[in-house]
Amino acid sequence: MAATVRFHEYGGPEVLRLEDVPVAGPSAGELLIRVDAIGLNRAEVLFRSGHYIEPVKEFPARLGAEAAGVVEAVGAQVAGFEVGQAVSVVPAFSMNAYAVYAERAIVPAAAVVHRPEGLGAVESAAVWMPYVTAYGALVEVGGMGAGDTVVLTAASSSVGLAAIQVARRVGAVPIATTRSRAKKHALLKAGAAEVIVTGEEAVADRVLALTAGRGAEFVFDAVAGPGVVDLARAVAPGGTLFLYGAVSGEQTPYPGFELGMPALNMRTYTMHETTRDPQRLRRAEAFVSSGLSTGVFRPVVDRTFALDEIAAAHRYMEAGTQVGKIVVTVDH
In angstroms, rounded to a whole number, what is the distance separating the alpha carbons of residues 222 and 88? Predict the structure, then answer.
């Protein structure tokens, strides 16, 4: 038996329950992981509340796609992993099939990477979703390189902070946006070249001023909604507006016609484009691991909660005041 977070209906954080659930051994292609730390992601809030891109197929349902732990058992047809190895689970599967909000979890071996040496469980649970999301969209798909400018919305999130570091590593110029002036100093300290407080100035006007009228080669947006029209104005000709989240919860227009049909690329992105492709995941793992080993990448953990505080952790995430990753620790 393993303490496991489940929910029996859609709702707020109060629907989350910690229940003892049997854990079988791993089947072919799977690993059994002793979970030491869990990285929280907004996808889990949306899944729990019934607003995710994928609905719950059956209740009681489980949560979680990112964790750090130790291999306890190896299923058949699995190579490259041994009992006792420190590993991380990356989001690469449906939460209808697997989940890691638990003391122990069965996960597909294809979604597991070796933990970089010297990285603790808490930090390791804060790495893969942020850095692979940023790398996968901006570098793997977009081809971001030296001299490019990238505008990052919701920049104080774990993905936003990782994207600042990814941009710096390839020689690009990260411009961060935030709704709160209180977060401006933290974003500058994190490496943002400029910070735009969205309640005080128009993003597009500031970006155009900062780039001598050229615009940004990339906009990496977690908010979506009507604000994409102003963001599209900030995109350089032939540039790309990535939508990787929809925090606004509002309808998202295609702004190209409203703006006179500029040379605008606009596409959605989820990290599954990278993590469910073995070759792309291999490249992402190498990119992120090298950044961690050289100290260029430094995962930011805002706060930790215990597993039995999972409802409080979800409330904290929904409040939106964090700077960096929220991590849940598991005592054994």
Answer: 24
d(CA 303, CA 125) in angstroms, rounded, equals 12
CA 268 – CA 246 distance, rounded (Å): 10
Question: pLDDT digits over 181-214, tens only?
Answer: 888 999 999 999 999 999 899 999 999 999 999 9
SS3 18: strand
Buried b (16+ CB within 10 A) or exposed e, 182-217: ebbebbeebebbbbbbbeeeebbebbbebbeeebbb
Distance between CA atoms of 217 and 143, rounded to whole angstroms? Answer: 10
Q: Tell me the two tokens of residue 80.
A: 């490259």
Fill in the amino acid letter for 126. Answer: A
End-to-end CA distance of the chain: 13
- CA–chain centroid gap for 218, Å, is 18
- pLDDT tens digits for range 65-90: 999 999 999 999 999 999 999 999 99
Q: In what order do the strands lie in the sheet with 61-62?
A: 16-21, 2-7, 61-62
